[in-house]
Design goal:
Shape: globular
Oligomer: single chain
Order of helices and strands: HEHHHHHHEHHEEHEHEHEH
Number of strands: 7
CATH class of one domain: Alpha Beta
Helix content: 25-40%
Strand content: 15-25%
Distance between the termini: 33 Å
CATH topology of one domain: Rossmann fold
Radius of gyration: 20 Å
CATH superfamily of one domain: HAD superfamily/HAD-like
Structural class: alpha/beta
CATH architecture of one domain: 3-Layer(aba) Sandwich
Strand order of the largest sheet: 4-3-2-1-5-6-7
Largest sheet: 7 strands, mixed
Length: about 300
């Protein structure tokens, strides 16, 4: 009796993008294939905000930082004079999102937990995830991952890929929950980082978070972060914005190994949000979309290609 294998991507409608994704994974993981790649070299990199879960009306870490900001000002009253803190407390999101790398937003994120130990910060993240709800979608933030992308992560695990999160979000924020939510261990997170200081408190070793930014993992910083933290050129890259352009280019242009690039295009204003050139938050998509035909990158039209949005 013949059996039909279960569809590994049931939330994807039949079409060119799904077919190309399945064909590439099969080709690089099948011994005897002309495109076969050994397991040790099967690396895939994923942006997080807008690629694995939403980033509207604000990146989820920003929502967490705003929730923590009042407590930070109470701990350190001098922070109330910071212009970006004042903008956040006044709800001036435009000021925080100005600049190439959203410097104001990064400042507020840093301020919201400066002086905390990494353990206290992790506990605060988990407590927030346990109580907060997305203002429009009315679900817990960590229950808003994209079902089709979760299926891609599972497909790659089944074919012995190592998947990494390569995001402009804070590494410490993501490392709290990525293993539980995505099945990706915390050591496979490449994100923006701030300086921490070692101390002994009551005889116990702790790391204390500071206001100092060490590395912003966005734009051209993403390939640098991949090199520094992973040490291998990826075979696959998944993004959704011009902030992922350099990562897509680094993965696919003149790669000596087979490569695959994919862009999630937010076209579904009914089930999620619709934006590209104009966005209320992060995730502007213009140049990466323009380059996609010449680079051979696959573009997911969320409204067309996904039968289900959220897991």
């Amino acid at each position: 009796m013949s059996t039909v294998a279960a569809d590994p991507l049931p939330s994807w409608r039949p079409g060119a993008v799904k077919e190309a994704l399945l064909a590439f994974v099969a080709a690089v993981s099948s011994e005897g294939s002309a495109q076969f790649v050994p397991e040790s070299e099967r690396v895939a990199v994923f942006d997080n905000d807008g690629t694995l879960w939403p980033e509207q009306p604000l990146p989820f870490q920003a929502a967490f930082a705003f929730a923590e900001l009042q407590g930070a000002v109470q701990r350190q009253p001098e922070l109330a004079s910071d212009p970006m803190v004042q903008a956040a407390l006044a709800g001036d999101i435009g000021a925080l999102l100005a600049g190439d790398h959203f410097e104001g937003l990064l400042r507020v994120i840093a301020v919201s937990h400066a002086g905390m130990t990494t353990e206290a910060f992790a506990a605060a993240v988990e407590a927030w995830l346990g109580s907060a709800r997305h203002p429009q979608l009315q679900r817990p933030y960590d229950a808003l991952t994209y079902a089709p992308m979760q299926e891609v992560l599972a497909l790659l695990r089944a074919h012995h890929f190592r998947s990494f999160i390569v995001s402009g979000g804070g590494a410490d924020f993501m490392r709290v929950w990525v293993e539980r939510v995505y099945g990706i261990p915390p050591e496979r997170v490449v994100g923006s980082t701030g300086r921490t200081h070692f101390a002994l408190r009551d005889g116990a070793p702790v790391l204390v978070k500071s206001l100092d930014t060490l590395f912003v993992n966005d734009g051209a910083g993403k390939p640098a972060g991949i090199h520094q933290c992973i040490g291998r050129r990826p075979l696959m890259a998944f993004g959704n914005s011009d902030g992922d352009l350099a990562m897509l280019q680094y993965t696919t242009i003149q790669n000596p190994r087979p490569s695959f690039g994919l862009i999630v295009h937010h076209t579904d204003g009914e089930r999620e949000f619709a934006y590209d050139a104009e966005t209320r938050s992060t995730g502007r998509l213009v140049e990466a979309l323009r380059q996609s035909p010449e680079r051979g990158w696959h573009v997911v039209d969320m409204a067309r290609d996904w039968t289900t949005v959220f897991a």
